[in-house]
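Hi everyone,

Forwarding the result from last night's run.
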Amino acid sequence: MLYLIADWFHFEGLLNLLRYQSFRSGAALMTALFIGLLIGPKFINLLRIRQGKGQPIREDGPQTHLAKRGTPTMGGLMILTALICSMLLFMDMTNPFVWACVAVTVGFGVIGFLDDYDKVTKRHHAGLSSKVRLLLEFIVAGIAAYIIVSQLNTNLYVPFLSGRYIPLGPLYYVFAAVVIVGAGNAVNLTDGLDGLATMPVIIAAGTFAIICYLAGRVDYANYLGIPHVPRAGELAIFCAGIMGAGLAFLWFNAPPAAVFMGDTGSLALGGALGCIAVAAHHEIVLAIVGGLFVLEAASVIIQVFWFKRTGRRVFRMAPIHHHFEQLGWKESTVVIRFWIISVVLAVIGLATLKLR
């Protein structure tokens, strides 16, 4: 809104600041942070009143989690509210990449909300059936993939190698949808401890804010040998909004959590990261930067596969953060160590920009 107003007045005077993506990124971060902190207390009270007993806690999970009964869920609505408001204020809403990310963020947020609502009303942790949820996710991701691919090529670029790519052709639509859905569900699986998913999402968003800005600049892209994606720089503002909204949520989600993100937030944020990575042509780099999410998802896949084949478990409990809890690690220890891993992976991901 503000960007379009500034454009209408030809960016005269102070409005000239809105011409710069760096300024709008900082403004979006601070705006999302302020809105999130402002609405947080009343939002949490409203959720607590509406949900009563809060999110159901698994009886077969770590016993320390039983003390969290009564904590409201669907806190992702706070994140989405702050994020969307900052987007509307500072982003160029004529950019197709923006609308693709909005479609995924809101679409996955709605799917997550339905899942959370089902859990709260039925007092069971299962939620929607996995088949229904995946079908809805792939529909949303497919729409976003179509919007994105209409703006760029269908090559899969390989990090660490300048100018090397795999031409996927029509298969890129499927690949893009899988990346978006996979990212959404990987973050969703990571969201099992207070603050565990939130900070890695913030770190990944900050990393991709840099990547999107550089990929959107032809001079920087050519210098670094990364694919140049015209107009991708606008997504740096989107990433900054995620950071601000995530920081505001973390204020209330820090142990002991006053509210849980729920699938409403984790699916939306994960899907948004996947969509941003596809739009910036850095899909493989997302697997590096979001390596923690990949590890969490892989632990569940390995656990289920091996248990069905042998009747035995590889991990004491999956996702893997529960495995470390069962080994005797305190929840805060698991969370902080996983945050450290996320920072290291983000640095490695940024290194791919130059090491080519």
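The chain has a mean pLDDT of 90.

Cheers,
N.
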